[in-house]
Amino acid sequence: MALQQGDTGSQVEQLQMQLEKLGYNVGRFNPNFGPLLDAIVKAFQAESGLTVDGVVGEQTQTAIDRAVAGIALPTRVSPPPVSPSGDFTTGNWPEWRIVIQGGLNARSGPGFEFPVESTIPGGSIVTRHPNYTNPVQGDRTGKPWLVITNQGTAQFIRANNKFIEPDIQS
Fold first, then answer.
1. Rounded to whole angstroms, how far apart are CA atoms 98 and 46?
2. Residue 163's closest CA among 134, 113, 120?
3. Number of H helices, E strands in the chain
4. Is the dihedral of CA 59, 42, 21, 30 positive or negative?
5. Which pTM value belongs to this model?
6. H or E element that contains 119
């Protein structure tokens, strides 16, 4: 059964939980498919190369399921300690490791209106861009993006701690 704006029920809440795992800010979980969830579904569809209609049919649900399944389990039991050298919210760690198995798309700016310029494989170490004092940027769907140096330019990758983690030198 397809889900779309105006629908209600536990399937809507399950959809919200999946999209939250993928780094979208869905707000408080509730059984209503409202305008925010519609915008997030459309953003996911655009990112995935699907028809952008806001309807979660078989193709969109399969893409969401695959994306959730592709998230690597954290390599640490606990998050890194906060230190003067940086933290996730300010983006001040000099190096970050991509922990999602399939890799991350790099763009010239945050959000889906910017085309994908390259895909950085999972396990890669990326360096934050030195010209940004706070390299974590947000977009209109509430998704954080980290500004990195990639192929000689400033590019953006999804900055959710399910996708990247600070690379801590021991």
1. 22
2. 120
3. 3, 8
4. negative
5. 0.58
6. strand 116-120
Q: pLDDT digits over 14-52, tens only?
A: 999 898 888 787 877 889 999 999 999 998 998 888 999
- Alpha-carbon distances of 51 from 56, 119, 131, 142, 155, rounded to whole Å: 10, 21, 36, 22, 26
As a whole number of angstroms, the distance between CA 148 and CA 157 comes to 7
- Beta strands 104-107; 116-120: pairing state: antiparallel
**Residue 128: which residues within 8 A CB-CB, separation 6 or more?**
91, 92, 93, 94, 95, 96, 135, 146, 147, 148, 149
Q: Exposed, middle or buried, 48 (CB in 10 Å: 0-12/13-18/19+)?
A: middle
Q: Nearest to residue 30, comparing CAs of 13, 17, 14?
A: 13
